[in-house]
Every structure is written in structure tokens, then in C-alpha cells.
Amino acid sequence: MVFIRLGRIIRAGARSYLRSSRGMPDGSWLPLSGPLRLRYFFEDMGGVFFKLGQILAMRFDLLPAPHALALFDLFEHATPIDNNRMFEVFRQQYGAPIENYFILEPTPLATASFGQVYRGTYQSEPIVVKLQKPGVVETVVTDMAILRGLSWFIAPFGLLRVVPLREVLDQLEEWLIDEVDYRREALNGTIIYKHIERHHLQEHVVVPRIYEEFTRPCVIVESLIEGRTVADLMRQYDSGSLPFDATAVTHAFIRDLMRQYFIDHFFQADPHPGNLMVLPNGAISFIDFGIVGRPISATHHFCEFIWGAVNLDYARMVHGMMEFAKARLSAELGDDQSPKDEKALEITLTFIEERLVEELKPVMFEWHASTGDPSLDLAKRSSSVAFFKVIRILERFDLRLPPDVIAFIRMLLIIDMVCLRLTPEFNMVVAVHSFFDHHPLESIEALGRAHQAELAALEDIPTPMLDPKRDAIAVDRKREHAARAHERLKERVYRLADRHPELYARLKRL
């Protein structure tokens, strides 16, 4: 299967490069430019590569604007699959035809990377039925095997030294395993729905209600949200003619995603334009909870880092980062450290903190100046520019951001680019300030603690039995990562001491 799929990838790449036109359903031929060749390559490949194309569609800092814009069609315009094949998926899951339960419109409402969505009614209520494409699980497993094979060639070049490539692929695989089991998506959606109720935000933030009785591994049924996807709005309107207050909507998206992360500790980790909606009254909506994120450890120190960054309080910013690093390392290393190792770690982190302030000052100053400047192109206004500079600075001190933090940063960078597309006036610094205006920094830690017991209760919501193999894999990987943490930490301290004689002298006095 792997070799067959790899052969298909090579053939699709060759076709995309060599073809000058593409046949369309109406019999016409579409001339292929470079951007369109890239789009159709990802579309033809499907599976994990389709998801990769969606990710790249938000990366104006990595791709030329025409290529990134061409990939936007992947959010809602994948090639539909014949209804008979899709409805057979339902029959296999339920043992009965789909028309026995729902009245569906024959034209799919949307076709995504792994599923196809239909609008319909159930007991006179408007609903959507999402069906998983046949063979998705096998394709995901095969594509991940190919990516892991390719990682052996990529890793030695150190392209992702701050974020170990193996950990990135581990998290991607966990996300994809979750995404292709709609029972998990149903549970995720129910949890986020309950969080919104708890915060009394139903008038401002809308998510679909899950019909749990219809949840199956390849089928999910939800209430219909009457609104427009952000992807559709981007295609239909210029930024100056949107039928709502674009600044208010963009700030609402930022505020709510930060609330999900810092207070609820459970967030929509894939907020691309096809998964975001705006309702006629200006309320925002999230749909599709196949990929969610959850912090492994407390987030209040990382929140302090964000607060310091948007307020140009460099000492507070770096203090938050280092306290977060200490807490995270303590959680990873457990109680197995010797007193000498603990002291060495304390000396090393103090040394780093002293130097990070001056290193990060110019990066943060430049970020504040560029993010709200409409005269700059999208790539320069994107917060990803500042983020990757911070990454490189942290790399010089052998500091690594853990995968769950990378997931949160990735989410912020995606939503940042979405907001920049909605309005050229968008300013990420101002938007983040709006979160702290609603939730002062001093209150966030207490709010997060107060909701932890309720979050645990929500995760006990009755749901069909999930695959125990997935959870066993996650536990094994956690143990493996913990076992490697000690050795990695020692190696990093030694490397840093070799590069900085002052740190070496401090450690030598131990």
C-alpha cells in the first residue's frame, strides 16, 4: 500500500508539473498556472496531503500570495464523491438506508479533506450530516508512513531543531487518528458546546449541537448553523464591503480562541476559513472539532509571556517564558532529579533569562510596528514573522516549545492570517489586548483552576466506546518522551555551557 501510494504521489507531482491544462466537469479545459498546479496536486492526492495544502493556504509567509490564494479552494471545494458511495458509508454504519432517517438535499453542502457534508432535516429540524469518505483511515495510515520515511531525510538538516520533527509527526498522527473517528469529534463538539453554555456566551459564540444518538465512527449529525463560512466571505467580498463589523468579528475570534486555551484548556486547534462562520447578527461560530488541542500543563505562565509581549513589558514577558519552562521541565522530569541536577537547571534557566530580555526586545518592537500597518504586504504583517524570530532566539539557548504549545501558536497564526484577510486594519496586538480587557491577567489562573473539575466531568459524558489502541499508543509515547527528557536536558545544558563560558563557570562552581 505504501509503495502504491508513493507511486501515486510521484505521478501526481509529474502531472501537475507537465500539464498545461485540466479538463473540467463541463467539458471545457482550464489553463494551468503554477498556483493552480499546486492546488490540483493537493486536491488529487487527498488524505494527509490535502490537509497539508489547507495548512499552506494560510502561510503567506512561506508561499507566494498567488499560490497561497489558490490553495484556499481546498477549504470548501474539494472534488465531491458520488452520493451513492457516500450513502453506502451510512448504510454500513447503521444497517439501513440514510433516507430512513433524514431528508437530505442531493447536492453536498461541502466536501472536505476527509468527509462530505449534506444539508437536510430530521423531525422537521434543520441538520447537517457528515459522512466520512471511503478508505480514509487506510490513506491516513499510509501517508503518515510516507511522511515518517521522508523525515529520516529531512531531520538531519535541522530544519525543525526547536521543535523535534518526531514529536511534530507524533502529534500530527494523534490529531489525524482523532479526526477520522467522528465519535471523538462528537465528544469534542459537546465539550466546547458545554463550555460556551457555562460562560453564557450563546448569543455571541455558536457551535452546532450534536445528535449523539446518530454518532458513529464515520457518521456525525449536527444542528445546522445559519451563517456564512469565512472562506465564502473571503471569496464574495472585498475587505471593505463585508456585511458586518470586521474589526469586531476578528477580535471576537481571537478572544474566544484564547479563552478556550487559557481558561477552558480545550480549544479548536484547526480554525481555518472553512471551519469558521459569521452569523447574520455578527456572532461567530466554530464548526468541525476533529482537531482540538489541550495543554498538557498549566498555561498561566505562558499567558504572562503573551501579556508581556503585547504590552512591551520585556521583563514580564521573559519571566513568564522561563517560569513556564521551569514548570514544564519539572512535569517532564518528575521526581527523578538529583539536588545537583536541580541546581544546574536553576542556574542555566537564570542565565538564559538574563539574556533573553535584550534578545527579544527588537523582535517585539518590530512586531508591534508591522502587525497593524496596512501599507505592508500580508507576509510582513503576519505575526508568524515575529514568532519564527522568537523561535530562532530560543533555539540559540536550546529552549524547545512543546507540541501542545506549538499547536496553540499554530492556531493563533492561522487565525491571524484569517483576520488579516478579512480586514487590512487588523492588528493582532490590539486583538490580544481585547482578550485581556475581558479577562485580566491576574484572574486567568484562578478561572482556569475553577473550570478544571468541570472539564473533567464534561469528558465523562457518555459516548460510544472509543478505540482503546489509540489511548494506549498515547500513554506509551508519553512514557517514552519522559524517559528521553532527562538525557535531552543534560545534552542541552552541556551544549549551552560549551557555547557560553560564563555559564560554564557558574556550573563549574557546583
Describe this structure in a few short sentences.
The protein has 510 residues and is an alpha+beta fold. Among the domains are: 2-75, no CATH class; 137-175; 311-400 and 471-510, no CATH class. 60% of the residues lie in helices and 9% in strands.
What does this structure look like?
The structure is a single chain. This protein has 510 residues and is an alpha+beta fold. Among the domains are: 2-75, no CATH class; 137-175; 311-400 and 471-510, no CATH class. The protein has 20 helices and 13 strands. It has helices at 2-18, 34-45, 47-57, 65-70, 83-94, 136-154, 165-179, 182-198, 230-236, 246-264, 300-310, 314-333, 339-371, 378-381, 384-396, 403-422, 428-438, 441-458, 468-499, 501-508, and strands spanning 21-23, 29-31, 103-104, 110-111, 115-122, 125-132, 205-206, 219-223, 228-229, 267-268, 276-278, 284-286, 292-293. The strands form four sheets. Strands 3, 4, 5, 6 and 8 form a five-stranded antiparallel beta sheet that branches. It has a four-stranded mixed beta sheet with strand order 7-12-11-9. A hairpin with a 5-residue loop joins strand 11 and strand 12 (284-286). The radius of gyration is 24 Å and the shape is globular. The protein starts with a helix and ends with a helix. Residues 156-163 and 461-466 have low confidence and may be disordered.
